[in-house]
From TrEMBL:
Monomer. Its EC number is 6.1.1.17. It is found in: Cytoplasm. Keywords: Aminoacyl-tRNA synthetase, ATP-binding, Cytoplasm, Ligase, Nucleotide-binding, Protein biosynthesis. Pfam families: Anticodon_2 (PF19269), tRNA-synt_1c (PF00749). A motif ('HIGH' region) lies at residues 11-21. GO terms for biological process: glutamyl-tRNA aminoacylation. This is Glutamate--tRNA ligase. The gene is gltX. Catalyzes the attachment of glutamate to tRNA(Glu) in a two-step reaction: glutamate is first activated by ATP to form Glu-AMP and then transferred to the acceptor end of tRNA(Glu). A motif ('KMSKS' region) lies at residues 254-258. The keyword Protein biosynthesis applies. One of its GO terms (cellular component) is cytoplasm.
Length: 461
């Protein structure tokens, strides 16, 4: 394994990244960067689909990766590299390896159905190679525009006599893999509208940019035999391939950028801890338990591609709350002082506030709610009922003078108990609701000094 691998993540800017896309990005990033490796991570936008690709999606992709901690070493856009693809196509044409075809989609579908009806594999029969120059001129005069196929090297002399031609590679995830090129149709590399397809542009980019390791989803594995043949035809070094399994929801549904399911943008907006998302994306389907890593190097130490399950892995989005809470509870005040002050926690109260509320925070956004409870105005309270309202009024009359500390709550509660005869939940719950507007939350011994006597009195029912 080279100490300086070059990897790439090549999203299409046609929607928002979801946690399944992040799995691929992180497998590449961690493989290139952890354990002393000083590899190169390329962010390559597959934006040749001019109708669906949007600059705003590309911007959000970059923001999402930065949120996770992924900072690309190189950023390129395929739309800036069209001349490179056209030059590569010209080389293939000159070598007789890229040939024009004229069948319509309906004609191709009819051929496919006939082959299947005869019990034959639906492999393209290279009929376009039999066309003469006159045939091609006639078809173009009829208004047909050619699309272009790559002639697979699965024959010896006679292209219509395909023979078994095995392509082998040692997959980082799946181990030894073999594809027989005779079982495949010659792939279309250029559409009739002149636009190059992903199979072609990806190979040219990988070869031109010196990508040493291609780590991607298992849905691309059928492309690998073709892409290796294409890399060799263009004279490029063949990278090491790894095909990881895909993530699905707990119901087995696939993820889609267009559906927005579990998009990083939505998770980021909801205040989920980024390392909770990263941990779930990487560790789902691997051996061992899913635990929240504190940072990417720690997560990378657990990455072992050879242990990734070969089948799709289901994950429970509810795990994000558990992982996010694990990370949040480990944070120290100094780690998040800036964030806490930004939501209005007084600088002198940051440490005491965070120690008081962090066990009740699943994510940092929850801290803002507790800030409002502690430092805001009188909370909206549910109806206490006349008995509890009268009880709390009497209790507030017994508030001790300041200074207040964590012993104040017990002293006050003891005084209220002695004066009213109430104890246990009948004493604590009405006071909690009066003070915070909630029937749950951090220990009142920690909250009361933060609320202070002045704000507490304003909360008297």
């Amino acid at each position: 394994m080279p100490n300086r691998p070059t990897v790439r993540f090549a999203p299409s800017p046609t929607g928002y990244l979801h946690i399944g896309n992040l799995r691929t990005a992180l497998f590449n990033w961690l493989y290139a960067k952890v354990e002393g490796r000083e590899g190169t991570f390329i962010l390559r936008y597959d934006d040749t689909d001019r109708e669906r690709s949007k600059p705003e999606y590309a911007e959000v992709i970059a923001t999402d990766l930065e949120w996770i901690g992924i900072r690309p070493d190189v950023v390129v856009r395929q739309s800036d590299r069209l001349e490179l693809y056209r030059a590569a196509a010209a080389r293939l044409r000159e070598a007789g390896l890229l040939y024009p075809c004229y069948e319509t989609p309906d004609e191709l579908e009819t051929k496919r159905k006939r082959l299947l009806a005869r019990g034959l594999p639906p492999v393209y029969g290279r009929e376009a190679l039999r066309l003469s120059a006159e045939d091609r001129a006639r078809l173009e005069a009829e208004g047909r525009r050619p699309y272009w196929r790559f002639l697979l090297p699965n024959f010896d002399g006679e292209p219509f006599a395909q023979q078994r031609t095995e392509i082998h590679w040692q997959d980082l995830v799946l181990g030894e893999q073999t594809v027989d090129l005779a079982s495949l149709s010659d792939p279309v590399l250029i559409r009739a509208d002149g636009n190059e397809l992903y199979t072609f542009t990806s190979v040219v980019d990988d070869g031109d940019m010196g990508v040493t390791h291609v780590i991607r989803g298992g849905d691309h594995i059928t492309n690998t035999g073709v892409q290796i043949a294409l890399l060799q035809a263009l004279g490029y070094e063949v990278p090491t391939f790894g095909h990881h399994n895909l993530l699905t929801t707990i119901d087995g549904e696939s993820l889609s950028k267009r559906s927005g399911a579990l998009s990083l943008r939505s998770l980021r907006g909801a205040g989920v801890q980024p390392m909770a998302v990263a941990s779930l994306a990487v560790l789902t389907g691997m051996s061992g338990s899913i635990e929240a890593a504190s940072n990417l190097p720690e997560l990378g130490a657990r990455l072992d591609l050879s242990t990734v399950s070969a089948s799709a892995s289901k994950f429970d989005p509810a795990e994000l709350d558990r992982l996010s809470a694990e990370i949040t509870h480990r944070l120290e005040p100094g780690d998040i002082r800036t964030e806490l002050e930004a939501i209005g926690v007084p600088p002198e109260s940051v440490e005491a506030f965070w120690h008081a509320v962090r066990a009740n925070c699943v994510k940092m956004a929850d801290a803002a709610e507790w800030r409002a409870v502690v430092f805001g105005g009188s909370p909206v309270r549910p109806d206490l009922g006349e008995d509890d309202r009268q009880f709390t009024r009497e209790a507030f009359d017994l508030l001790p003078d300041e200074p207040w500390d964590e012993r104040t709550w017990k002293g006050w509660a003891d005084a209220v108990k002695a004066a009213t005869g109430r104890k246990g939940k009948a004493l604590f719950m009405p006071l909690r609701i009066a003070l915070t507007g909630l029937d749950h939350g951090p220990e009142l011994a920690s909250l009361l000094p933060l609320i202070g006597r002045e704000r507490t009195l304003k909360r008297r029912p």
